[in-house]
């Protein structure tokens, strides 16, 4: 290999699994290989649902050992959740899982102090019951928060354990509902009115900023030779995934697919209108001054939970069977928070169909087709509304993430949106993570340069829309009129 080729370890933690990928970047080249993959299994304790963050950290160390010598390390993960540290820097308990029930009813208490309209105008964040703001409000009288001296979001916590240095990366901070998307700084007024101490947070970092060097103990455990820098990346996995959308120009929409579907646009400025709030769109911060204007959709979580309930059947044959089920026979609202909690997912989907006067799917193939049709319908609705609310028309939809491997979902999304879908790359978050590291080390230029490199080096599949758009409008009417 050329001496200019460098290796970057991308730690990419999803809600159901973690992985350490190695990206090798050189002039005009980008290769990604998997070094180590490990499960991310939440644990239900007497106190509630918790993340096994020590298990995740062990997986990261195992992954760095498997990766071998690298020029830098970057970490991205899911958003909103955090660990609390005491005055000695020790973790105060396992981080609470965003699906924990502690935030039920908390939003209404927050809105009694800061009305929902004011909160959106100040922070641009959609309502989601698990936003960090609501989690902190729910924890207000807890012993842990009383003793806490520092709050670190999940990727920042793991970075701290690797380096001993603390920071709060901006793209993930923007999911806390405590950041002003116009100033790209903390919303001091909102925090003050709600009694939240912003001094708990470490100083803000930008993607590409240095985040310290691997500690001597980490080098010894992983077998790496120092110094190995850790680089702040778009540490919210969606920020990294959007950075890896292989788009040309500005007239594109994206759907980051996995446990969640995040469907929306990349903009230069937030959309803070009341109409945008009512449509539950969020304004999260991306690379290079961009805004990720998107809607959270329940995503493949619906199918993951059903597959778990059915005893983990093989996905390939199930999707083939689902492809033979009549289209749009029954659909549910894939953005409905009623599907947020785990358990009994096939039954809950059937109940939702019956409640809206539709046939209830019975077999696994019928339930799977209902889920995929419903996700495509939710993708259509989000992209249509985002274009209208932001006055930003698009010509193509880019699907990235794990859902790119689901050809039926990609085709249905093209059909529903009436736009071509370009699917790939599947490991978008890890690739975006690698690109930010490579850019910090001078191997890649701006966001456009990185996307052109992806287009040249990553396998992409194009799906053209087919069928009658009227059928999708009729299916949507079943939900909106129900």
Radius of gyration: 22 Å
Number of helices: 19
Strand order of the largest sheet: 17-18-16-15-19-20-21
Q: What do the pLDDT scores average to?
A: 96
Q: What can be said about the biggest beta sheet? A: 7 strands, mixed
Secondary structural class = alpha+beta
Q: Give the low-confidence spans.
A: none
Q: Fraction of residues in helices?
A: 25-40%
**What is the overall silhouette?**
globular
Structure summary, number of beta strands: 21
Q: N-to-C terminal Cα separation, in Å?
A: 61 Å
Strand residue percentage: 15-25%
Structure in a nutshell:
The protein has 482 residues and is of the alpha+beta class. The protein is 39% helix and 21% strand.
Detail the topology: elements first, then pairings.
Blueprint: E1 6-13, E2 17-26, E3 29-39, E4 43-45, E5 48-50, H1 53-67, E6 72-77, E7 82-85, H2 106-113, H3 116-123, H4 132-138, H5 143-147, E8 150-153, H6 154-163, E9 168-169, H7 170-173, E10 179-180, E11 185-186, H8 188-193, E12 204-205, E13 210-213, H9 216-222, E14 229-231, H10 237-243, E15 252-257, E16 261-267, H11 274-278, E17 282-285, E18 291-297, H12 301-309, H13 315-324, H14 345-355, H15 364-390, E19 396-401, H16 407-417, E20 421-423, H17 428-440, H18 447-457, E21 461-463, H19 469-480
Parallel strand pairs: 1-6, 9-12, 15-19, 19-20
Antiparallel strand pairs: 1-2, 2-3, 4-5, 7-8, 10-11, 13-14, 15-16, 16-18, 17-18, 20-21
């Amino acid at each position: 290999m050329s001496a200019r080729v460098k290796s970057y370890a991308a730690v990419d933690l999803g809600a159901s699994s973690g992985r350490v990928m190695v990206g090798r970047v050189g002039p005009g080249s980008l290769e990604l290989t998997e070094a180590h993959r490990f499960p991310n299994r939440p644990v239900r304790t007497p106190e509630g649902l918790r993340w096994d963050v020590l298990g995740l950290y062990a997986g990261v160390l195992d992954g760095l050992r498997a990766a071998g010598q690298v020029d830098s390390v970057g970490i991205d993960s899911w958003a909103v959740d955090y660990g609390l540290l005491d005055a000695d820097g020790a973790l105060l308990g396992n981080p609470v899982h965003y699906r924990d029930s502690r935030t039920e009813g908390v939003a209404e208490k927050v809105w009694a102090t800061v009305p929902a309209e004011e909160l959106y105008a100040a922070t641009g964040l959609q309502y989601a019951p698990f936003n960090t703001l609501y989690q902190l409000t729910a924890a207000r009288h807890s012993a842990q928060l009383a003793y806490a001296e520092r709050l670190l979001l999940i990727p920042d916590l793991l970075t701290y354990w690797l380096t001993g240095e603390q920071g709060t990366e901006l793209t993930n901070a923007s999911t806390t509902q405590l950041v002003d998307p116009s100033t790209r700084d903390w919303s001091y007024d909102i925090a003050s009115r709600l009694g939240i101490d912003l001094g708990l947070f470490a100083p803000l970092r930008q993607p590409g900023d240095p985040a310290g060097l691997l500690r001597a103990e980490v080098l010894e455990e992983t077998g790496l030779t120092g110094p190995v820098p850790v680089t702040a990346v778009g540490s919210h996995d969606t920020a990294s995934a959007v950075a890896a959308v292989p788009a040309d120009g500005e007239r594109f929409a994206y759907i980051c697919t996995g446990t969640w579907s995040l469907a929306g646009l990349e903009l230069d400025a937030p959309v803070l209108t009341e109409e945008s709030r009512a449509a539950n769109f969020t304004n999260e911060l991306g690379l290079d001054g961009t805004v990720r204007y998107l809607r959270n959709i329940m995503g493949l979580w619906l199918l993951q939970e059903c597959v778990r309930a059915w005893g983990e059947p093989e996905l390939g044959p199930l999707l083939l069977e689902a492809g033979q089920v009549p289209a749009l026979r029954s659909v549910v609202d894939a953005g409905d928070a009623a599907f947020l909690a785990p358990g009994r997912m096939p039954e809950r989907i059937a109940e939702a169909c019956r409640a809206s006067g539709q046939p209830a799917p019975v077999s696994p193939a019928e339930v799977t087709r209902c889920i995929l049709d419903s996700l495509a319908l939710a993708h259509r609705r989000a992209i249509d509304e985002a274009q209208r609310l932001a006055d930003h028309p698009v010509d193509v939809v880019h699907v990235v993430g794990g859902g790119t491997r689901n050809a039926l979902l990609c085709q249905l999304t093209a059909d529903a949106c009436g736009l071509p879908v370009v699917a790939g790359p599947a490991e978008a978050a890890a690739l975006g993570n690698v690109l930010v590291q490579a850019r910090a080390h001078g191997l890649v230029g701006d966001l456009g340069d990185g996307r052109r490199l992806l287009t040249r080096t990553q396998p992409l599949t194009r799906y053209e829309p087919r069928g009658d758009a009227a059928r999708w409008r009729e299916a949507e009417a079943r939900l909106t009129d129900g």
